[in-house]
Amino acid sequence: MDSKSKNKVKENDRDYKYYLKKYQSVVGLILFSVLISLLERRFLTVGNIFNVFRQSSINAVIATGMTFVIITGGIDLSVGSTLAFSSAVGAFLLGSGMNTPLAVIITLIVGLVIGMSNGIIISKAKLQPFIVTLAMMTIFRGATLVFTQGRPISTGYEKNADLFSSIGTGSLFGLPTPIIIMIIIFAIAFFILRNTTIGRYIFSVGGNEEATKLSGINVDRIKIFAYGASGLLAALAGIIVTARLSSAQPTAGSGYELDAIAAVVIGGTSLAGGIGSIFGTIIGALIIGILNNALNLLDVGSYYQQLAKGLVILIAVLLDRKEK
Amino acid sequence: MAEKILEMIGVHKEFPGVKALDDVHLNIYKKKVMALLGENGAGKSTLMKILSGVYQKTEGKILYKGKEVEFKNPKEAQKSGIAIIHQELNMVSELSIGENIFLGREPRKYGNVIDWKKLYDDAEALLKQLNIKENPRKKIKNLSIGKKQMVEIAKALSLDAEIIIMDEPTDALTDTETESLFKIIETLIEKDKSIVYISHRLKEIFQMCDYVTVLRDGQFISENPVEEIDENKLIEMMVGRKLKEQYPYLVKEPGDALLKVKKISNSHVRDISFEVRAGEILGVAGLMGAGRTELAKSIYGTIKIDTGTVYLEHHAIKVKSEHDALKHGIAYVSEDRKKYGLVLGLSVRENISLSSLNKISKYHIINKPREKKEAEYYVEKMSIKTPSLRQRVKNLSGGNQQKVSIAKTLLTKPKVLILDEPTRGVDVGAKKEIYELINEFKSQGMGIILISSEIPEILGICDRVMVMYEGGVSGFLDRKDADQEKIMRLAVGIKEDG
After folding, report:
1. Is the pLDDT score of A7 beyond 60?
2. In 3D, which of B443, B469, B472, B13 has the Cα closest to residue B263?
3. Alpha carbon of B209 to those of B70, B195, B199: distances in Å?
4. Alpha-carbon gap: A206 to the closest alpha carbon of chain B (Å)
5. Predicted complex ipTM
6. Could you please report the per-residue DSSP string of A275-319?
7. Which of residues 254-283 of A touch B (CB under 8 A)?
């Protein structure tokens, strides 16, 4: 072929503008942190940074699963209720004397099953993810209230509960356990999205579902995987919450879906599907975490906190708009 | 000769890089039906879009009732009395017949309140004029396509249209619906309307029309009164061009039968049997709506087959999904690459590897160096012009997108390759490159099914031609016997009788 020289294929054609654009959320995060540390001396201390990470960990774990779902072009509103229901089951099992590892595994399975049910209903019945997960959110909030009779369920004071509560309050090599869990989850999710077939298919389903199906890929399975991961991670977040409080609250997790969606969207993942990254979600979750932390440090009243959070989300999304 | 109500004189239309219309003439006579005839891509629709204000002409004149006019948008054309009934009907299916007829022009009372009684009375009167027995309160979604078309005609009537353009109106109609449409056309003529009737069904033209204008390759060929012409002459005028060097044919003795389709039927195709041999290109010709794409999708597992069997290398195979088809070695390149072929937001590399990702991974982990190597190989081999493998496919030109779409299926190492309009929307240079690629696959012993609406393309590179008509096979032609006329005859449903 004569055009070989002209047609030389480069793997990398990126310049600094590309990277600036790609990492604009990181730039935003850094500028934001600098601003806050100037306003409040206590912000930039090791203790407080750990605090931010620990407080972000629950939202971050949920947002990771949400990232999978949103990249497929869907949404999962049921994560808060999934968190509540699975941790109620877990706390009940612990309270009745079951050992920690088994109780944790069962809790995770409950979350996984709820998530996979979402995926199965959405893909097989071809329903809107918004509606299906909205219904599931209500169903499992109700189920939690029925199961707990509206009262907190204690994880008990048996010896085995010590191991359990260390998931929320303990630390390893000086790092709080929730932070370690968050980092591990991020690493796994990052690897799945970048290096596995299922990760690639998640992007292609969100980008063009029809074309993906015509490329011989089982689209239903991909969706069930994404929603299953979301349910599983919601249950994991539930375990952290329950372990910190030594009890499962019937109203645990309500509103968490919105924080998770906000983290994903701030991280540059498109609600239309097909575009997004775990890295962005990490940044998004941290921005929300820092914001909450800063507003507390700055003694902003809780009414104003909501207002400020909403505005930050809106600004972040507006800044990201040009890309699409 | 009848009185001319509208004249299009010397109309040119250029799109970037393409001359769609080249000095085209069209006369519309008062109270007459003018047929506009031509192959797919001859320029019929472009001409009508200019007349109805959707496109602007590059050059030329339009005289309407003796005065020169220029419609800047569809609304202006509509106001002047030109209505077009599109192939894809533009109606709001959740609204009623009456609401659709008067959409945006609802009769009002007390300022801004819709006068429902007047709306439905008027709608009923309109339907009655056209002898349509239907309750105007019925929702559009509950109507058959034929009835919907009639509602569109009623709407045109309510707009006081004087010229009504019908773009292949009978394509989706049953025989009885076609009959009622013809009656309505008669009624319209009685009401002093003039009609432009676009169709490729020759029979209807002799049944319905007074004059016929033929276009070919964007050029005006002729205008004749229908009684002075016959079917043979029309076909000749529609196709009469010579094959150019554009089509490289590869002489090769075909091998064993690779794919055999025996009497497959479903709701889209009926009773289709054919075979493709190794190293053979089977062309599939036919008009729009003949069921060619549906046949391909039935073989590929997208559309379920109700009865019949598909054999691959003499073994009956069951294809329940696209995945099964690819596993057996049957690959399909869709006619609509943007909608069904590519994930536009993903990169060139990711699109090329999409169908065979499981082959280049182990334990679900993608072997990225290998993926890159495979993608590089095809980008070079097929001279896909892209700045990098990371480039998003949406930023490539049509021809290069098409090549990516083909590369994706090639990487699955198919035995049978079904190409559906592979050169649609591709510039001339890239077309020839695609033909050469197809020939290369042929020489490697692949069995190729080439669906195309361009008869010269089919004649140019295929070994055999299968012609489809209304969901069935109307005939096979060998390369040495095939010509445009014979294909066109079969495509319009005229059986060859020696």
Report:
1. no
2. B472
3. 27, 9, 11
4. 9
5. 0.82
6. ---HHHHHHHHHHHHHHHHHHHHTT--HHHHHHHHHHHHHHHHHH
7. 274-275
